[in-house]
Design a protein that fits this description.
two-stranded antiparallel sheet, alpha+beta, seven-stranded antiparallel β-sheet
């Protein structure tokens, strides 16, 4: 069963992240007046590529903008169940690494649900997943799980899945955070920054 099947988006809590703008960019589900996916992607690609000391080509900017638009379509187009997406991009020359977050109404036993949301018992993993408790400043203690599996379309390729899960009982909300990539080295290098992002993530009351 997919960890988000039959789940209901949280009616009590929403995700708030105070991210480092030098390393992360917001990929919002909706845009302010005057922006759409293409204009957002182009604006962010230019901003990240034209930071001090960088001299990007038009080809580099256009390629990054196209990739950002693809990430947005994946995050909010139904292929991935996601309520908020952030993109790890400390270096414009590296491929953007999307991170997905979803906040659900709490359901069932806490420990069982967190293991489900974090893929702690993923039967498709090529070896038992690495499962550990993880404590974040604004979220308390949850689970952090790293697993490796064969790519569904290319069995010769491994991909890594990094998942976090928490329960926030005061707001009856379960939080799932996840990254998947075939670039295993990039994920390993990014993990300290992802862990730190968890420390500046919290669930706040949803405002009607």
């Amino acid at each position: 069963m997919h960890p988000d099947d039959q789940a209901t988006p949280s009616g009590w809590g929403r995700i708030a992240v105070h991210y480092d703008v030098d390393k992360w960019m917001s990929c919002p589900p909706e845009f302010p007046a005057g922006y759409d996916v293409r204009s957002w992607a182009r604006t962010y690609a230019e901003a990240f590529c034209r930071r001090p000391g960088l001299t990007p080509t038009e080809e580099l900017i256009s390629a990054l903008a196209a990739r950002l638009a693809e990430i947005h379509a994946d995050a909010y187009g139904g292929r991935i169940v996601c309520h908020l997406c952030l993109i790890y991009q400390p270096d414009p020359l590296a491929s953007p690494l999307p991170l997905y977050m979803s906040a659900w109404d709490s359901r069932g036993d806490r420990d069982e649900t967190l293991r489900l949301l974090s893929h702690a018992d993923n039967a498709a993993a090529v070896q038992p997943p690495s499962v550990a408790e993880f404590t974040a400043r604004g979220l308390g203690t949850g689970l952090k799980v790293l697993y490796h599996s064969k790519h569904p379309a290319r069995e010769s390729v491994l991909y890594a899945g990094l998942n976090y899960a928490w329960r926030m009982p005061d707001l009856a909300t379960d939080l799932r955070v996840f990254v998947t990539t075939t670039d295993l080295g990039r994920l390993q290098l990014a993990m300290p920054d992802i862990d730190e992002l968890m420390n500046v993530t919290t669930i706040v009351p949803r405002v009607a």
